[in-house]
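Bumping my old thread because nobody answered last time. Still need a sequence for this structure:
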């Protein structure tokens, strides 16, 4: 039984980071040290590769989330410099970071949950 569980975990953690994403953060005025909160006030912070998965309908239902919101899971190499006030630019869309947590106990990967921001 333990051998089967170990194989299942190892198969799940064999993640392919093949999609390019860009982390963007709020611009901070050096004179005032206050972040600008408008949508145009974001600058490129880092770009990296990630595994991108859209949430399935049963996961959205279990989370009691609004089904009209596009929620995406991004899996990247573990980083300590990513914060929840950043956004992710991926495939022409911008996603607001809603949460992040280590994917495994060795802090190899970081699971980031993002919601698509609809621009008007």
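Sorry it took so long. Here it is:
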């Amino acid at each position: 039984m333990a051998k089967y569980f170990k194989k299942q975990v190892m198969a799940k953690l064999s993640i392919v980071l093949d999609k390019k994403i860009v982390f963007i953060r709020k611009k901070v005025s050096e004179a005032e040290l206050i972040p600008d909160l408008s949508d145009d006030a974001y600058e490129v912070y880092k770009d990296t590769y990630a595994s991108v998965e859209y949430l399935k309908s049963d996961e959205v239902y279990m989370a009691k989330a609004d089904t009209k919101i596009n929620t995406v899971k991004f899996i990247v190499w573990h980083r300590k410099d990513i914060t929840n006030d950043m956004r992710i630019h991926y495939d022409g869309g911008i996603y607001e970071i809603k949460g992040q947590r280590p994917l495994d106990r060795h802090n190899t990967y970081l699971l980031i949950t993002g919601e698509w921001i609809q621009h008007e």
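The chain is about 15% helix and 40% strand. Let me know if any region looks off to you.
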